[in-house]
Specification:
Blueprint lengths: L1 H29 L3 H16 L2 E5 L7 H14 L2 E7 L11 H28 L4 E6 L3 H12 L4 E5 L19 E5 L2
């Protein structure tokens, strides 16, 4: 029920913001300031373009915790999900072994596509727009590229690197990963 009410609140908020932008555009147009009127309306399209949530997988995998978190956030906030798998397989890394790099990249891409299916199906069940992207560079570099390619995004969700000897783990228990959310504005 909370998800449904959240969607209604978000729709009302958007409509009131849109109304304010249109009112500003009308006032500027009436005052002979068409440039300002166009800017007021153009701002709306950039806000809509940025309603994306980038979810960074751990190499070719998305943990169930990050999938659940991202789906809940995207549903609550009306975001599109961009699922991102990255591998630091730049040209510099494999300069001497270019044929090996191609095979490794193909294998990584195939594995990423296989591993993202459950995430994509869960998003489709909730009617959340979903795109999967595979890139071959460090995550921070890929985020810069991705921002230029897709026109911006508001948040990035990722997991912290696991610590082998994390405090609180005993007898080979796996430490529960922490999820990080970054605002990109």
């Amino acid at each position: 029920m909370g998800g449904f009410l959240g969607k209604i609140k978000e729709m009302i908020r958007k409509r009131s913001e849109n109304t304010a932008q249109y009112q500003e555009a009308i006032e500027n147009a009436e005052a002979g300031q068409q440039g300002y009127a166009r800017e007021a309306i153009a701002d709306e399209s950039t806000v809509e373009a940025a309603r994306k949530l980038v979810v960074v997988g751990r190499e070719s995998v998305f943990s169930q915790e990050i999938i659940d978190y991202a789906l809940e956030m995207a549903e609550r906030m009306s975001y599109e999900i961009i699922a991102l798998n990255t591998a630091p397989l730049s040209c510099e890394t494999f300069k001497l072994f270019s044929s090996s790099r191609n095979k490794i990249c193909e294998d990584f891409e195939d594995l990423s596509k296989k591993n993202v299916r459950a995430f994509q199906e869960a998003a489709e069940k909730k009617s959340i727009p979903f795109t999967h992207v595979v890139k071959f560079n460090e995550s921070y570099e890929v985020l810069k590229e991705l921002k230029n390619e897709i026109g911006g995004f508001e948040f990035v969700v990722s997991e912290m690197e696991e610590q082998e000897n994390a405090s609180g783990t005993e007898n080979g228990e796996k430490a529960k990963g922490e999820i990080c959310v970054y605002s990109i504005m």
